[in-house]
Design a protein that fits this description.
Length: about 500
């Protein structure tokens, strides 16, 4: 019963993002929710055997400065954190710091996951800090554009420095307690950057699926999506990606041919996608349905690449009659709509803009406005389709994506390249001058294109783990009997690195 409920929740989450338009704006939120429910299932099993782990997670709030770099400002915001002392071998045990990214954190972040398994092995104190302006760590002034000026990765790192001092004081830590940071996706980038910028505070970092290279035109995202749909080892095929391309070509041709009313009916749009902007939103939503399936392929409860390709290549038992690729794409949307009983698909550009302009905290914890602001001011990551390798519509352009920076925040499009260049200069992009950082990526995860996937010089020669057939942040989950051999080997390699770091840290303290 729990498994089926978990599966339903994940699919409903996917549907909710369909309603909102561009799915990939919130793909990291879907990862968090899917893994949250799986981790809760893991904890439930422990509780049934007489081990109620949740009682070991304690939450708290630290009041952080809104601007760490302006001494004249004294205003603060409440930042949420969690602590789990269950495994800590005080007073000299290590500290494992889980860093939240563009989503809320929860008690699960100190109760379950691969880093928690390693904490039990090494007697570590587990702590997790939520990112400013996400989850419950909200700016009291709201999310108006002028208030978002205090939202940046640099301010987030300063929050972590303050939190490091707070935890050190609270638990009477010393230089005998090595800190190791953990994080996934943007949180993984912060884990790596924290080690790189503050090596005197952080001894090592495990950065999973961490996009450390800012990129304005992230066209290679969809290139990897296409390659993954072709990968037979994960259920793809050349026919699958060909049929996807054919389906999008048919949708685009129908829209350009003046048949937008029929297209709107076919995909059950709430309104006819009459304007070019509306049509781009519709095509973007359809593309994101497929791209998010690739990114989250081995997340329990979601649709897999194999299931998607079975439907798109007309091999699904649910649709025995031969159909055109266009109709199969409609069927794919119907799968989601039937589960959620969704009345219609939102494709209105103006309605989506209105939702993104909402400067109040979302009740469901979604964070697309904050993340889009960081995309416009720091990272880019606009997943375009103007490259010939993209299996979707060429109407998904960089201009159509970056126009939102101006419409939402008043940021001119010509300023974005400068923002991206500064981020890469400040952190080092894919060639940072730092060591004792382990970058872990999955082969079919499109985000590996902006992460570190190769080993470097003698100083950091063992810095990258690349997992065949794995998707986004797959290594962060607790071990499961369905895990591939490659994923198991990757976790063993991570464990070896962490163990080596802690032994080296102990030896250095003894010699010092």
């Amino acid at each position: 019963m729990y498994l089926s409920t978990s599966r339903l929740i994940v699919i409903i989450c996917l549907l909710n993002y369909v309603c909102a338009g561009r799915l990939l704006w919130r793909s990291k939120e879907r990862v968090r929710r899917a893994r949250y429910h799986k981790a809760k299932q893991h904890l439930l099993r422990h509780a049934l055997t007489g081990h109620p782990l949740e009682s070991h997670a304690k939450d708290g709030v630290i009041h952080q400065e809104l601007d760490h770099f302006d001494s004249n400002r004294k205003d603060t915001f409440p930042q949420r954190f969690y602590v789990n002392e269950k495994y800590w071998e005080e007073p000299d045990g290590p500290i494992f710091l889980f860093i939240g990214g563009e989503a809320p954190i929860s008690e699960v972040d100190v109760l379950a996951g691969h880093h928690v398994d390693m904490a039990e092995e090494h007697g570590a104190l587990l702590v997790a800090l939520e990112h400013r302006f996400y989850g419950e760590s909200m700016n009291p002034g709201g999310l108006e554009t002028e208030d978002l000026a205090d939202l940046s990765s640099q301010q987030a790192l300063a929050d972590l420095v303050t939190f490091h001092r707070y935890i050190s004081d609270r638990f009477r830590l010393s230089d005998k307690n090595p800190w190791i940071t953990f994080g996934g996706s943007y949180g993984g980038s912060l884990a790596a950057w924290m080690r790189g910028k503050f090596p005197h505070l952080i001894y090592g970092a495990v950065a999973s699926s961490a996009p450390v290279e800012a990129k304005l035109d992230f066209s290679t995202y969809n290139k990897v999506v296409g390659l993954s749909l072709m990968d037979e080892e994960v259920g793809g095929s050349a026919k699958c990606v060909g049929d996807v391309w054919e389906a999008f070509a048919a949708v685009e041709a129908a829209l350009m041919g003046g048949n937008e009313t029929q297209v709107g009916k076919d995909f059950s749009c709430c309104d006819t996608p009459s304007s070019l902007d509306d049509q781009i939103e519709l095509l973007g939503s359809l593309a994101d349905l497929i791209a998010s399936t690739v990114e989250l392929n081995d997340i329990e409860g979601g649709m897999s690449i194999e299931e998607l390709c079975t439907l798109m290549t007309n091999q699904s038992e649910a649709y025995e009659e031969e159909t055109e690729a266009y109709d199969r794409l409609i069927n794919l949307m119907d799968v989601y709509r039937e589960v959620e009983d969704l009345p219609c698909l939102l494709s209105s550009h103006e309605d989506i803009l209105e939702a993104l302009r909402n400067a109040t905290e979302a009740e469901d914890g979604t964070s697309e406005r904050q993340w889009y602001y960081q995309m416009c001011t720091e990272f880019g990551f606009f997943q375009t389709c103007e490259d010939a390798s993209c299996p979707f519509s060429r109407m998904l352009t960089l201009r159509s994506d970056t126009e939102l920076c101006t419409e939402l925040f008043g940021i001119p499009q010509d300023r974005l390249p400068g923002h991206i260049a500064f981020t890469n200069m400040y952190y080092g992009g894919k060639d940072p001058e730092s060591h004792r950082i382990l970058y872990v990526n999955g082969q079919i995860d499109p985000w590996h294109e902006v992460s570190v996937t190769s080993n470097g010089t003698w100083l950091n020669r063992d810095r990258a783990i690349f997992i065949k057939g794995a998707s986004h942040c797959a290594d962060m989950q607790e071990e499961d009997k369905t895990d591939s051999a490659a994923l198991r080997q990757a976790r063993e390699a991570i464990e070896s690195h962490v163990a080596m770091w802690l032994k080296t840290a102990a030896w250095e303290k003894m010699m010092g």
